[in-house]
Amino acid sequence: GGTALRALLRALLRAANALLQQRRYRAALAVLKGFRNGAVYGAKIRAPHALVMTFLFKSGSLREKLKSIAQATYTHSRNLAYFVFTYKGLMALQSRLQGKKIPFHSFFAACIGGWLVFGENNPINSQIIMYLLSRILFGLSRLAVEKGYIPQPKQDPFPLVAALVWGTVLWLFEYHRQTLQPSLQSSMTYLYDDSNVWHDISDFLIYNKRTDGK
C-alpha cells in the first residue's frame, strides 16, 4: 500500500543521494547538471523577454502571441541546455584524454558546441550571438590592456565608445535600415519614426498609432 510505496521512494532517494556523492561519477554528473542548469537559465532569461517584446511589437491574437512566447522560450532553453551539455562533456573528455585541463580545451569545446547548437541562423541564435559578441569585444579590449598590448587609457574611453555606437547605429537605421536585426528595427521605428506621426491628442500622448481607421 501507501506505506510500502513511501518506503520504496525513501530507499530510491537514499540511493540517488549516495550515487551523487561518488567521485568517480562526478564529471558525468556535472555534465547532466549543466544540461539542467542550461535549460532552466534559458527559460528564465527568454520567457520575460519574449513576453515583453511580443506584447509590445507583435500583432496577432492572444493565442498566437502565447504560442510565440512558448516557442521562443523553448528554443532558447533547449539550445542552452544542449550547449552546456556538449561543452562540459567535451571538456571532461579532453581532460581525461590529456590528463590535465588547458586553455585550448575550453576554446575547442565551445567552438564545437557553438557550431552544433547555435549554428542555425535564426532570430533566437542571432540575438544570443550578438549579445555575446558585444561582451567579447569589451573583454578582449580589457585583456589587451591587462597584457600590455595596448596602453592603459589616461581617461575612461566609455564616453567615446557610447558616442560611436549610437552614432553608427542611428546612421545605419536612417540610411541602411535593412542591415539591422528586425527586433532592433522595430524598436527604433517605434522611437524615431512613429514619433513623427500624430493626428490628435489621442495618438500624441495616449496611443502610439490610431486604430479606429480615421
From TrEMBL:
GO cellular-component term (any): peroxisomal membrane
KW ATP-binding (keyword) present: no
Domain of life: Eukaryota
Signal peptide range: 1-18
Full protein name: PXMP4 protein
Assigned keywords, A-Z: Signal
Pfam family, one: Tim17
Gene from which this protein is expressed: Pxmp4
Taxonomic lineage from the root: Eukaryota, Metazoa, Chordata, Craniata, Vertebrata
TM segment ranges: none
